[in-house]
Automatic annotation (TrEMBL):
Organism of derivation: Marinobacter orientalis
PANTHER family for this protein: UPF0585 PROTEIN CG18661 (PTHR20974:SF0)
Name used for this protein in its record: DUF938 domain-containing protein
Gene3D superfamilies, A to Z: Vaccinia Virus protein VP39 (3.40.50.150)
Pfam families linked: DUF938
């Protein structure tokens, strides 16, 4: 692995199943803001398969370097270099967006940051625009698998602000911020793809 190109095996495994879903959601040409891009493997895969989109990666200041070399190397016309975005900062990139995507971020962010992500997107998205959120989620405080229960425990031991988010809380947050859940897809490895629409 090149030191300037961090690699995630999980991303390699899930990028095609996610693409198979999001291609039915991100159908209109436009700019998609990715929050918490990480290694950039999703960004490169999706931008190359969905040339009608402009893919805008972002991550917290200090983390944008994790995807930069991979994105430069991909040299795709519709894939931009990452911009800095910490959803908690209140400082968002100025460009207008037509949709949003975020994977494996809600359980890493503190709940207040998840709130800030929805609220920040709500301010920048027009009615009908989609927000695809991928990751593990629980339902009625019940995990969907033993491995997710263990993962949740592991996260909370690592840092008490982290943890798998519950759909009841997300649905409440969506209602407060102006999103509705359009669909909830079962994905490999006990993950879900949630498609929210701006009201
Ligand atoms: C587990 S990684 C997921 C990376 C990638 N999306 C994936 O699926 O592999 C979590 C990502 O969320 C980002 N993140 C955490 N807190 C954030 C915040 N407050 N604002 C924006 N991104 C954040 C991290 O920097 C990291 O890139």
């Amino acid at each position: 692995m090149a030191p300037d190109k961090p690699f995630s095996q999980a991303c390699e495994n899930n990028k095609q199943p996610i693409l198979d879903r999001i291609r039915n959601t991100f159908t209109a040409p436009g700019t998609i803001l990715e929050i918490g891009t990480g290694t950039g493997q999703h960004a490169v895969h999706f931008a190359s398969a969905l040339p009608h989109l402009v893919w805008q990666p972002s991550d917290r200041p200090g983390a944008t370097a994790h995807c930069r070399a991979r994105i430069r190397e991909a040299a795709l016309d519709n894939l931009r270099l990452p911009v800095e975005l910490d959803v908690a900062s209140g400082i968002w990139p100025g460009d207008s967006i037509d949709g949003a995507y975020s994977a494996n971020t809600a359980h890493i962010m503190a709940w207040e940051e998840v709130e800030a992500m929805f609220a920040g997107l709500a301010k920048r998205m027009r009615t009908g625009m989609p927000f695809c959120l991928y990751g593990p989620f629980s339902y009625g405080a019940k995990h969907t698998s033993d491995s997710n229960r263990q993962f949740d425990r592991h996260l909370r031991m690592q840092a008490p602000h982290m943890g798998i988010r519950d759909m009841d809380d997300l649905l409440k947050l969506a209602e407060q911020t102006g999103f509705r859940l359009e669909s909830d897809h079962e994905m490999p490895a006990n993950n879900r793809l949630l498609v929210w629409r701006k009201l």
